[in-house]
Amino acid sequence: MPPKKFNDHPFAYHQELELEITTLTNLGVGLGRVRLEPAGGPALRSPAERGEGWVVMVPFALPGERVRARVFRNHQNYSETDLVEVLMPSPHRIAPRCPLFGRCGGCQYQNLAYAEQLRWKQRQVRELLQHLAGLDFAVTPVIGSPREFGYRSKITPHFNCGLWKPDTGKDENPSVGFLRQGSRHDIVDVPRCEIATEAINQALVDIRTDVRSRLKAGEFKRGATLLLRQAVEGVITDYDAVITEEIPLPPPASGIRHPKSLRLRFLARDFFQNNPFILPAFAGYVRDQAAGSGARFLIDAYCGSGLFALAAAPSFVRVAGVEISATSITFAVENAAANGITNSLFVAGDAAAIFAGVDFPPGETAVVIDPPRKGCDEPFLRQLLGFGPRAVVYVSCDPATQMRDLRHFAAAGYALAAVQPFDLFPQTRHLECVITLRKAACA
To answer: Which domains are seen in the chain, by residue range?
Structure first.
């Protein structure tokens, strides 16, 4: 039976379709089109239906494949389906390493050869740049992760306490894992995560046993999210623990002498990049792009515990980190002292006056920004563009919001100098993209 509010245009509930997959969306979903016939069928409502065909989304289907898919939802402009069968596989299709692939929502690309993952991610950045920013600019090939699996240094499994019924004994093994593909509530039991480090997987065994025992004892009143984070101290499960990350740094392009590594301390719950194996190249590239602009000063505008500011400090006369979180600023100051960096300043910025505590000359200053997934909000952009730095190095975990923001920079006289994606998240749709912008008068 279809759901009560199912829209039956243009396909019936669970109707099966055969189609060819032509591309991947930036959400990692296969996309194809089906030509709708007006005779004996529903009236065609839009030019897309009459022309290129109706868009059909098929998760886990790959470009070039012919597949059979089952419809479960029709939207105004496209339909969502489940993959039933691959009729003609892509030459790049491989066997996924994880037995839960396709059910667990964590990975989208374990069935796609890694070199091909990188090519598609490069293409997606290029297409987003064209469609959202209106710019045609060469996107450098994606820099891949040294590890394709076993790279994540942090995972956050979930559980729902409602799955265990102490009075009936129902569900002897409550699920501890991640959200099911396509679901906002169902949890897939995950005894092992193939993209997490081996140390985390070893710790996960005992944590799952402990959670299940406590669930059965009735200790939990509601579900929760767990934390497993690998650091210098080992695998940490306490959100409030202070942990240490050590980041080896590559030699700078400028030839200026830099320390070979950086040690940073921060709270386990704080944001920090979760692929330590690619992080040295990633941080080194951001440093070199900022220094390569010719700027003498650097501002790290979402500095956290100081990663980019401290990694780049020897290349600049002075660096400043700005962060709304006062606790992060405390750690950044301590990290500077612990690493022997004396030309840094860290300011707990007010959201309404972010640059008020920094007196660097804008024409000689580069700014690094690494905003949340939602991108930069308009008040921040107004302040940044009002400050008018010589160059901006924009780091983003969501190229779609990053490309949206580029229109503001273009309108303020900034030109693209480089677009470099990094694959911090192999086997998934996610990636980081670093864009370098320079003010036209300073280029």
So the answer is: 1-93 (2.40.50.140), 119-148+277-442 (3.40.50.150), 157-226 (no CATH)
